[in-house]
Amino acid sequence: MSWIKTHCGRMDHGGCSILVKKEGNKIIDIKPDPKGYLNRGYICTKGIYSHKKLTHPERLTYPLKRKGKRGEGKWERISWDQALEEISEAFLSIRREYGPEAIAFGAGMPKGLDHFVLIRLANTFGSPNVVMTQDVCHAPREISGIHTCGFYPVADLQSQSSLILLWGSNPPSTNEEGQICSLLLKQLREGTKLIVVDPRRIPLCDKATMHLQIRPGTDAALALSMIHVIIEERLYDREFVTDWTYGFEELSEHVRSFSPEKVSDITWIDPSLIREAARIYATSKPAAIQWGNPIEHNINSFHTSRALICLMAICGNLAVPGGNIWEKDPPLLSLREFVRADTLPEKWKKMVNKAYGVIPRFMTVPSTFFKKAVLEGYPYPIKGYFCMASNPVLCWPDSNETIRALKALEFFVISEIFLTPTAMLADIVLPAATQFEFDDIGHYGLGHGIVFARPKMVDPPLECWPDMKILNELGKRLTSPEYWYEDYRGLLDEVLKPSGLTYKKFAEIGYLKGKESFRFYRSQGFKTPTKKVELSLSTSKRFNIPSLPEFLKLPKLTEKFPYVLTSSKNRYYLHSSYRWVEELRKRSPVPTVELHPETAKAYGISDGDEVRIETASGSIVQVAKITERIHPKVICASYGWYFPESSPEKMYDYTRSNYNMLTKAFPLGKEFATPNLKGIPCRIKKN
């Protein structure tokens, strides 16, 4: 037996350096690496038990073909040759009749290099339609950053900050996008101040100078109000604003209407707290904003991201150590080259997004547009779908509409490690290898300036293939073989070629990081049309987008729906995944809904009671968790729940507690097609 170093992944974006103990072809233990660049000896519960999914008795171990109707749970075993042949025949037939754009390729959150291999397959096949979750995850922050300051502003947790403003982010629970909580906690131990913006009083609030308990969905209004205070009290960085920003006067005039007194009614935060938070942020040098995924869960996602970048800029916290920085990539093949964007040069003009006028550089298709193309043929029909590492029935808004769309497809293929409610609707299910069973590169393309080696530890079950291998083999059948390799591992070496490293050598090193680029603008300016941070977008008329960040009103509370619904991710799971891992399920056995004691008392609800949550879209049942850590007017439900222990004929009881039974795909934010996943009017009752 020996301990082997690798990096975690597949249970999240990963990035934690871990040590794996194996015996023969079996992993028997995992522990954190005390020398890990991001985690420094930390590991989450998911990571500790991440190897348990490899040997689960219900794991898929051979290809399946549907026999009955979609969702009936009737399958027959087929060979890989038959599976690949039938997929190829179906997709090529659809392409001949409807064109390549009638086939969509999709995935969930990026977990490894296979995410970009999928885009490579779509491009070389001729399809512009890659369906991903970026409309509600990452893209609003990243692309708004590119338009505003020329880069994606990542919180620099490696350098010491005077203050960290934690906005809709809960690293000890989520470790989102490689922002591992150990780096944050180290700073707090060393005296860094903390302000938390969150509808819930998360445990980190106990370490914070301030907690702004915001009404879900009103982040843009709060950010604009803080800008109002900073400009009104002349607390901004005058030198940086004068030399390196564009549109400061326009922004100043614009935020006059966002006084703390006015915004207090919108956000439910006392005006004095808004003013104090603004003053602390503006006068703490340097300060970092660690922003989380929740700010991208309503129609204001573009405006919230823009407002927060403006806040960073006017206080001089962009591109400085301990602030929000541009993490440049190490020497690797560019994403554009790797995904073979050259084979589809007019992709932007051909994707379904073009019909909706979304923001430029947004190059993945939101689920809502995909479903409209399937169900209504707008702007043209989509007939086939290849999906991997995703469970749309649980994770896309409006689960009923998602079911209708998947059932309406002519041909639907999914790669999975376990039968999920979504897999039950497929024509063919392919058994995937998972982490530790293949060589991989983590964090490529995520904008954090670092990539991690995830070398293979054990062999997968005989017929379980890595998604990269599946895509590589399909590529040979669907496109020109010149884009593919005899062995899929050639894709790894292709990415690494500019570094001069083979994959084997890269695995020995463990990770590659780009060079620091603090205050790069002094020599080259910002990568925008004006060479400055564009507080007011110079391209707004050209792209038909607002020049200044705004606040779009959310649905009003009514007598029928008097509470605000939000949700939170579970620290023991990844979206809908791994509720079948026994060691994790024991720690979180049921979906819980958080209620304030006053709210629970009003409805005669006790801790542990079943609660029915209703919106205008539907209703679900979850188990009450009564806590003073939530606002009396807010209901916080669990997300991603289905029940693998239920029968496949019932599609694992996906309707009972699934948060997306409560959401709708419309209205949408124009720039990223983001729906209101939070801030939704709701009501409750004891079930």
What does this structure look like?
The structure is a single chain. With 687 residues, the protein is an alpha/beta fold. Helix content is 29%, strand content 18%. The protein is built from 24 helices and 27 strands. The strands form seven sheets. It has a seven-stranded mixed β-sheet with strand order 5-4-17-16-15-6-7, with helices on one face. A six-stranded mixed β-sheet has the order 23-25-24-27-22-26. The chain has a four-stranded parallel β-sheet with strand order 11-10-9-13, covered by helices on one side. α3 (114-125) packs parallel to α18, α7 (219-232) packs parallel to α12 and α15 (367-376) packs across α17. The mean pLDDT is 97.
Helix-strand blueprint:
Layout (H helix, E strand, L loop, with lengths): L1 E6 L9 E7 L2 E7 L12 H4 L15 E3 L8 E3 L2 H19 L4 E5 L6 H12 L4 E2 L7 H10 L4 E3 L7 E5 L3 H4 L6 H9 L3 E5 L12 E3 L6 H14 L5 H7 E2 L1 H7 L5 H8 L3 H13 L3 E5 L9 H14 L9 E3 L8 H4 L8 H4 L16 H10 L7 E5 L3 H4 L3 H10 L2 E6 L11 E4 L8 E3 L7 E5 L12 H12 L11 H7 L6 H7 L1 E3 L7 H4 L8 E2 L5 H4 L19 E6 L13 H4 L6 E4 L1 H6 L7 E5 L4 E8 L7 E5 L41 E7 L1
Parallel strand pairs: 6-7, 6-15, 9-10, 9-13, 10-11, 12-21, 15-16, 16-17, 22-26, 23-25
Antiparallel strand pairs: 1-2, 2-3, 4-5, 4-17, 8-14, 18-19, 19-20, 22-27, 24-25, 24-27
Helix pairs in contact: 2-18, 3-18, 4-12, 7-10, 7-11, 7-12, 10-11, 15-17
